[in-house]
């Protein structure tokens, strides 16, 4: 059985009396523990897809199955991290990280006992009582991801989490994310604009195409792990990059 | 001759250069900003006290030499004397308790109920839209003009003053809280829902804290409005209170006593303002600066 399945999931909006297809009926089958990236130009339905899986948006058609169970319209079944860190500015980093557990009804003390070792292990030790405003962009994204992790769902959706970071920090965060993914054995869905990032991180890449948003192709990444800086120079990496660039270019030309 | 004048010219430029150097040196003296800040603060405090002293001294002096008519303007020493007499022999103290009590109770009720009203608009867009014109209409009514009706409705006792103070504050707070509710980051709400939060949890963990600075910003205006409401209530009809005392003093043309009332009210107003500053700090406790 697949961990997460989207069966003919599609979404149609109405705008000014006209029907706009945000996402044509799409099928996804994601095995447990996989790292899957979704790339595509804006308007390809990435956010729609994520919001549907997160239960924040109901699909017009199709089913979304988590461990074989339908989770349409049910929020809180998967971890979801948005592009912005969305830390509550009036809470300390520690009390931001335990927010998910707090909402589940876990006692504050127990939640903190679980959060503090994680913070220490993943580069936020000593920042427990700082406020988000005092941290750098990379640190805030770490905190946001730890909040999602601590919420403890098997599937985690990451919507361009490193989009706003500079190149250096970004590379560091990618390695950090791979470490976490290895440690926790989560199934990750990762939206990005960055082809390098998608290849470097993923087992599979779903290429989406805009107007109407639809799934264009599924590309398997056969580069062995663990991956490092050298991976970016390997022949397989470069070949795959060429292929993906070609696909995205077609769409770009179509839009123009 | 020539060389002499040249010498003078040279020494002049030398001096100019020296001056320039001195000026540069003076500017580049390193100063601790914290120390400078502290010194400026001390000087400002001294200046403030001095200005206050000059105003009071001038008031006293001008009324004594007849530049200001002391019948209208009274003067500081007489005000203190009259104040002391009404404090020890009159009803100044009970009047003060009466007025401040009505103001504070009205302020607390108005702020609390106003906040609840404003925050409630988060729950339903339809309810918020239907209420909108009525909130604006109620805000537009000059509440003090309703005072005579309210006194008839609630009697000449304490409660009519509380109601007036309440009416003055409730809508201001409700509007502030409403703005706060509208300013809540939709993505924060979305993030909480994605963590499986119920609406009530989003309300308590995101909406209330987001709106809090807006509510808090209305406190300082509200305390002054509440005091104005109470005093007008006392003007209209009352057996006690500073407002009644001022009205009575005016009727018997005791300007000294009117001034005592004004001074006491000003002091009360400052005190309550400081109270709201403390309340602000309390309500925003544990937040970053």
Can you tag this structure with a few keywords?
heterodimer; A: 256 residues; alpha/beta; Rossmann fold; 2 domains; six-stranded mixed sheet; four-stranded antiparallel sheet; 8 helices; B: 289 residues; 12 helices
Textual characterization of the structure:
The complex is a heterodimer of chains A (256) and B (289). With 256 residues, chain A is α/β, with parallel strands linked by helices. Chain A is 36% helix and 25% strand. Chain A contains eight helices and ten strands. In chain A, a hairpin with a 4-residue loop joins strand 9 and strand 10. The longest helix of chain A has 21 residues, at 235-255. The mean pLDDT of chain A is 89. The N and C termini of chain B lie far apart (72 Å). Chain B has helices spanning 2-27, 33-64, 70-73, 76-88, 92-120, 125-140, 147-154, 158-182, 186-194, 199-236, 242-251, 255-283. Chain B is an all-alpha fold. Chains A and B meet through helix 3 of A and helix 9 and helix 10 of B. Chain B: It is found in: Cell membrane. Chain B: The chain crosses the membrane at residues 45-67, 96-123, 144-177, 214-236, 257-279. Chain B: Its main location: membrane.
The CATH topology of the largest domain in chain B comes to MetI-like fold
How many DSSP-defined strands of chain B? 0
CATH superfamily placement of the largest domain in chain B: MetI-like
Oligomer kind: heterodimer
Order of helices and strands of chain A: EEEHEEEHHHHEHEHEEH
SSE layout and pairing:
The complex is a heterodimer of chains A (256) and B (289).
Chain A: E1 4-15, E2 18-30, E3 35-39, H1 46-53, E4 61-66, E5 69-70, E6 79-81, H2 93-97, H3 99-104, H4 108-121, H5 137-150, E7 155-159, H6 167-184, E8 187-192, H7 195-201, E9 204-209, E10 214-220, H8 235-255
Parallel strand pairs in A: 3-8, 3-9, 6-7, 7-8
Antiparallel strand pairs in A: 1-2, 1-4, 4-5, 9-10
Helix pairs in contact in A: 7-8
Chain B: H1 2-27, H2 33-64, H3 70-73, H4 76-88, H5 92-120, H6 125-140, H7 147-154, H8 158-182, H9 186-194, H10 199-236, H11 242-251, H12 255-283
């Amino acid at each position: 059985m697949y961990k997460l399945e989207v069966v003919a999931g599609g979404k149609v909006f109405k705008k000014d009396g006209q029907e706009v297809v945000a996402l044509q009926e799409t099928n996804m089958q994601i095995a447990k523990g996989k790292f899957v990236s979704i790339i595509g130009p804006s308007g390809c339905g990435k956010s729609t897809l994520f919001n549907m899986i997160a239960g924040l948006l109901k699909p017009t058609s199709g089913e979304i199955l988590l461990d074989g169970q339908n989770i349409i319209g049910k929020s809180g079944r998967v971890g979801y991290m948005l592009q912005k860190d969305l830390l509550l500015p009036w809470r300390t980093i520690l009390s931001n990280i335990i927010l998910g557990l707090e909402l589940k009804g876990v006692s504050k003390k127990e939640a903190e006992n679980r959060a503090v070792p994680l913070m220490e292990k993943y580069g936020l030790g000593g920042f427990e009582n700082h406020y988000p405003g005092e941290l750098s962009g990379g640190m805030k994204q770490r905190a946001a991801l730890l909040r999602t992790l601590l919420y403890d769902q098997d599937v985690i959706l990451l919507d361009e989490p490193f989009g706003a970071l500079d190149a250096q920090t970004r590379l560091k965060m990618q390695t950090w994310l791979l470490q976490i993914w290895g440690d926790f054995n989560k199934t990750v869905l990762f939206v990005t604009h960055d082809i390098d990032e998608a290849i470097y991180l993923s087992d599979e890449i779903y290429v989406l195409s805009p107007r109407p948003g639809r799934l264009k192709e599924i590309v398997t990444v056969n580069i062995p792990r663990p991956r490092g800086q050298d991976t970016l120079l390997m022949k397989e990496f470069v070949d795959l990059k060429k292929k993906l660039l070609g696909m995205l270019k077609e769409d770009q030309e179509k839009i123009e | 001759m020539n060389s002499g004048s040249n010498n003078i010219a040279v020494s002049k430029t030398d001096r100019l250069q020296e001056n320039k150097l001195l000026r540069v040196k003076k500017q580049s003296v390193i100063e601790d900003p914290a120390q400078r800040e502290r010194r400026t603060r001390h000087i400002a405090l001294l200046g403030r006290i001095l200005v206050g002293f000059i105003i009071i001294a001038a008031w006293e002096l001008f009324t004594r030499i007849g530049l200001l008519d002391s019948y209208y303007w009274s003067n500081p020493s007489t005000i203190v004397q009259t104040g002391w007499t009404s404090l020890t022999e009159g009803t100044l103290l009970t009047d003060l308790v009466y007025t401040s009590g009505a103001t504070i109770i009205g302020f607390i009720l108005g702020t609390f109920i106003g906040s609840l009203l404003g925050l409630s608009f988060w729950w339903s867009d339809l309810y918020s839209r239907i209420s909108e014109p009525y909130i604006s209409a109620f805000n537009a009514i000059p509440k003090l003009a309703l005072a005579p009706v309210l006194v008839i409705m609630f009697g000449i006792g304490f409660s009519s003053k509380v109601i007036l103070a309440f009416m003055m504050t409730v809508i201001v707070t409700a509007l502030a809280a409403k703005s706060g509710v509208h300013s809540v980051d939709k993505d924060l709400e979305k993030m909480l829902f994605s963590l499986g939060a119920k609406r009530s949890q989003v309300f308590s963990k995101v909406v209330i804290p987001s709106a809090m600075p807006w509510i808090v910003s209305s406190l300082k205006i509200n305390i002054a409005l509440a005091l104005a409401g109470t005093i007008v209530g006392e003007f209209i009809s009352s057996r006690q209170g500073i407002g009644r005392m001022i009205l009575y003093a005016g009727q018997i043309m005791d300007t000294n006593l009117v001034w005592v009332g004004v001074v006491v009210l000003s002091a009360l107003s400052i005190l309550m303002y400081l109270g709201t500053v403390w309340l602000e700090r309390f309500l925003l406790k544990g937040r970053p600066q």
